[in-house]
Amino acid sequence: MQCVYSTCSLHIQRKLMFSQGAIVEVTSTSEVSEAVQFARKHHINFVTEAGGHSTTGSSATHGGLVISLTKMRRVLTDPASKTVCVQGGAIWDDVNESTAAYGLAVVGSTASNTGVAGPTLGGGFGWLTGRYGLISDNLLSVRMVLADGTIVEASDENHQDLFWAVRGAGQAFGIVTELVFRAYDLAGPVYGGTLIFTVDRLPGILEFANRFDEQQDEDSGFFFGLAAPSAADRTAILVLPFYNGSEEKAEEFFAPLISLGPSINKTSMMSYKELNRIANVDPVPEGRKCFTGTKVSMPLDRHLLCDLWEHFDAIMEKYPRSKHSVLMFELIPYEKTISVPIDATACADRGRYYNVALLLCWYDPEHDGTMHTYMRALLSRIKNSACYAGQKENVQANANFAGHEIGATYLFRDNLPRLQALKRKYDPHNIFSKWHNLISHTEKQSGLQC
Asked: Which of 64, 197, 269, 441 has its CA 20 to 30 A from that of 46?
């Protein structure tokens, strides 16, 4: 166990640098337990860093202790049982490298340089979700350290109530040091890459998106949104297609899209691990950034997309150094996900809707407030549209995308009371509250404030 003092970090969603008092680089579950007990004994505020790609600020602290799992990245694939054991500090690229050697794959994030633990415990999704469900639905067991330093195993056989909670709200219950996943055969190549379209192709892209929703092909995926290919370009339409099948089937499926005439076409058959590197974002790039998300249902409205393009493009024109920003509609077939009852796990993010992700990037600290205002304005346009899906019983955002402006009620819905009861059992002093505070008495009751 190694301590590093007086260090700083910049997490993807944060506008400001965070100065922590010390980082403890642990190498085993027992060391994690020791670090937790030490922090509790000396009344030191602490947070956990797993893969180091937090989007909610849960792994950053002002002056406190960071328990870093980044040296715990071992991955063991068992081809006989088709299971994969992953340490809590691993990233998805570690997993994909290990499983590929056996012609296997797990449901993982769509970016391979992000951590494994965070997306899994928050009920994340990936390119294989259409066929196999959420990442958390493919989790078989975890080893974790509770708030008092106790080490426990949670699965369908042990601590079943805790295992229910960690599949969707795991960051609120302890530090997960080991995860075991179900793996699937995936020896052949898949179809993927990038397409760039000029904005005049937007009506045709929306027509394809709405048809995609109707098809619900479990082997497909379709991300599209707004981005600037370079600082010299106007905002274009970026598309990330996916198909798990033959090249012939993939080309047939995406033929209506390709026929629109992309200005750039970098699609091909590739390995699954290559596919998952396409959307990689440097977890600590130069500059400042803010990340958030929301939900939409189909059909998407052309007027909404044109309005979003105009305002997004205006921001990019006014702040040219912000052109690493993206606004993406992430379409993954949902029939497999909604086949699991909402109360089967803590993850309530199961509905006939899709994720929207917004990442704004900039450099000047003086623009912090302005960019945050832009972020809210863009989300407000979606929320006030007919395709907004965060009403009534639906969640307002994926828990891994949501900032603290969205209260736990709007992320966990009817599962929240049971989560709160389990918090009182496993974390009665609410030590793990940095991700989403499940028992906050000051939670906003109006949801996302735009």
From this structure: 441
